[in-house]
TrEMBL record:
Protein name, UniProt field: Glyoxylate carboligase
Domain Thiamine pyrophosphate enzyme TPP-binding: 389-541
Protein's GO biological process: isoleucine biosynthetic process; L-valine biosynthetic process
Enzyme class: lyase
Family designation: Belongs to the TPP enzyme family.
Organism: Bailinhaonella thermotolerans
Keywords associated with the record: Ligase, Lyase, Thiamine pyrophosphate
Organism lineage: Bacteria, Bacillati, Actinomycetota, Actinomycetes, Streptosporangiales
A cellular-component GO term for this protein: acetolactate synthase complex
Annotated ranges, domain Thiamine pyrophosphate enzyme N-terminal TPP-binding: 6-120
Catalytic activities: 2 pyruvate + H(+) = (2S)-2-acetolactate + CO2
One annotated GO molecular function: flavin adenine dinucleotide binding
SUPFAM superfamilies membership: DHS-like NAD/FAD-binding domain, Thiamin diphosphate-binding fold (THDP-binding)
EC number per UniProt: 4.1.1.47
Length: 565
């Protein structure tokens, strides 16, 4: 084999793993890799303004494509800046690889400039964190990183590259190399049969589709099973989009925040829950005694250690969600089980009619639910949405309709503020022809606002719909039981922060809306403006300052309160 620069081999691996774009920021300790990318010319690179932004861009790209996203930084603070992105990907099971430069191997013990043990720092928030110590290992470590990021419960990997290792030559022939195989976990047949027994014996069964259904690309199998057995389907926040929300078997969302009244009521009336790829996160379950009382649970997950982590299920099944659903459907057909009685799905439909939340408010200042009514009516099912954390995420989960998998991207578990702008860039670069919309809050907008410069530099258009209450709304609502409003007001003059002017400073555009009747026109303008300029466009909706999202201490359809009227 010919001797080639080791970083050329690394670029070959990245490209042949199906990655056509990476996000990062060059620095002295990572320049050999950048030189190899320049020489290769087949992997596009976007230069970011902050390494955390690079990780969230790779995250958004990965959530949209199902492939492994790649972010690159240099040594020292570049790596530590990536930790939030690694944590976010780890918490939501998103496959990304972060590559960091590092000081020379013989300087690591001498506290050299920007030499930090990023491997040890990253271990708690990665599936694997590794430093390449021998140049000949580099392509194999990258192959294993891609395999591991995709395998089982997906997640992030960090690879640290000392500068002296990057500069070496190795023997490598990319023409005889290929990605390592990923094995899907098949279910144990007796457990599939037991799960079917439990479903058929239940009077009011419910399927709960978690993020594992989307990660396992099992949405078609989910629909087939639900329709064949006539079982209602709920989704978790991370499973949103795995089942069409206008389907007659859709049963809403349960939880203490991102939920519907009727979804909570449906769950409380169920007697068995088939949970697919769900972690039973605390924002979904609320109080476990209420959540578990009166119903049995079947928990299916590709990761064995997820079973029993929150509570012991009545039946646990280790399996890829798609393979489990295929096996379940085959077992049901072999028994000629057929559809279950219609009484339970009809009850679900009646609860949906009886327990809606209002979204037709005409008030000024604007009430948040009205914003999502306009979003639902204006944008089509093919639109991609991203949103982060705060009251606007909760309202989004409660009111926003989602019809297709991978079209609703949300940083569900870690919840880092600022995620939306870089994630939207990742989504749009993955799907250049799609309409991409970020639903943001006025505070979160400012956390990684500098990444607007990336979108402007590379002509990446998307629309940001901002719900601006000039408050830290979620924290203010959390403070209500304490009878306090401490350090939540971020309004300091006529505008507080003039977000439209911020957009203009980055070469983008924006419009402020104060009347609900103006929202539709503003969304239409934003769509045309984004297409005209090929840059991000902001629709800033000024909502009521002290509007509350319906939340409760436990899933209780009776005790939860409505938005302030």
């Amino acid at each position: 084999m010919a001797l080639i620069p080791v970083m050329q081999a690394v670029v070959d691996v990245i490209r042949t793993e199906g990655v056509d774009i990476v996000y990062g920021c060059p620095g002295a300790a990572i320049l050999p890799l950048y030189h190899a990318m320049e020489a290769d010319g087949r992997v596009r690179h976007l230069i970011v303004r902050h390494e955390e932004g690079a990780t969230h861009m790779a995250d958004g790209w990965a959530r949209t494509t199902g492939n492994v996203g790649v972010a690159i930084g240099t040594s020292g603070p570049a790596g530590t800046n990536m930790i939030t992105g690694l944590y976010t990907a780890h918490a939501d099971s998103i496959p990304i690889i972060c590559v960091t430069g590092q000081a020379a191997t013989d300087k690591l013990h001498q506290e050299a400039f920007q030499a930090v043990d990023i491997v040890e720092i990253a271990k708690p928030v990665t599936k694997w964190a590794v430093q390449v110590k021998e140049a000949a290992q580099a392509p194999w470590i990258f192959r294993e990183a891609f395999r591991l990021a995709r395998s089982g419960r997906p997640g992030p990997v960090l690879i640290d590259l000392p500068i002296d290792v990057q500069r070496q030559l190795i023997e490598w022939d990319s023409s005889i190399d290929a990605p390592l195989p990923v094995t899907r976990v098949e279910p144990h047949p007796p457990r599939v049969e037991k799960a079917l027994d439990m479903l058929l014996s239940a009077e009011r069964p419910l399927i709960l589709a978690g993020g594992g259904v989307i990660l396992g690309e099992a949405w078609d199998e989910l629909r087939q099973v639900a329709e064949y057995l006539n079982i209602p389907v709920q989704v978790t926040l991370m499973g949103k989009g795995s089942f069409p929300e206008r389907h007659p078997l859709y049963a809403g969302m349960t939880g203490i925040q991102t939920s519907q009244r009727w979804g909570n009521a449906v769950f409380l009336e169920s007697d068995l829950v088939l949970a697919l790829g769900s972690r039973f996160g605390d924002r979904h379950t609320g109080a476990l005694d209420v959540y578990r009382e009166g119903r049995r649970f079947i928990h299916v997950d590709v990761e064995p250690t997820q079973l029993g982590k929150v509570f012991g299920p009545d039946l646990g099944v280790v399996s890829d969600t798609g393979l489990f659903l295929k096996a379940l459907l085959a077992a049901a057909r072999s028994r000629e089980a057929g559809p279950r009685p219609a009484a339970w799905p009809e009850r679900v439909s009646s609860l949906r009619r009886e327990l809606p939340r209002r979204d037709d408010f005409a008030d000024v200042p604007i009430k948040a639910p009205r914003v999502f009514r306009e979003i639902n009516e204006f944008y089509g099912p093919e639109t991609y949405f991203v949103t982060a954390i705060g009251l606007y995420q909760i309202w989004s989960g409660q009111f926003q309709e989602t019809h297709l998998p991978r079209h609703y991207q949300v940083c569900g578990q870690a919840g880092p503020l600022g995620w939306e702008i870089p994630a939207a860039i990742g989504v749009k670069t993955a799907r250049p022809d799609a309409e991409v919309v970020g639903v943001v809050g006025d505070y979160s907008f400012q956390f990684l606002v500098e990444e607007l410069a990336v979108a402007a530099q590379y002509d990446i258009p998307f629309v940001l719909v901002m719900l601006n209450n000039e408050y830290l709304g979620l924290i203010r609502q959390a403070e209500l039981p304490y009878d306090m409003k401490y350090e939540v007001d971020i309004h300091y003059d006529e505008y507080g922060t003039d977000n439209v002017k911020i957009m203009e400073a980055y070469g983008c555009t924006g419009r402020r809306v104060r009347d609900p009747e103006e929202i539709r026109d503003a969304l239409e303008w934003a769509r045309k403006e984004a297409n005209r300029t090929s840059r991000p466009v902001l629709v800033e909706v000024m909502i009521e300052r002290e509007g509350n999202a319906a939340m409760g201490a436990a899933i209780d359809a009776v005790k939860e309160f409505e938005p302030v009227s």
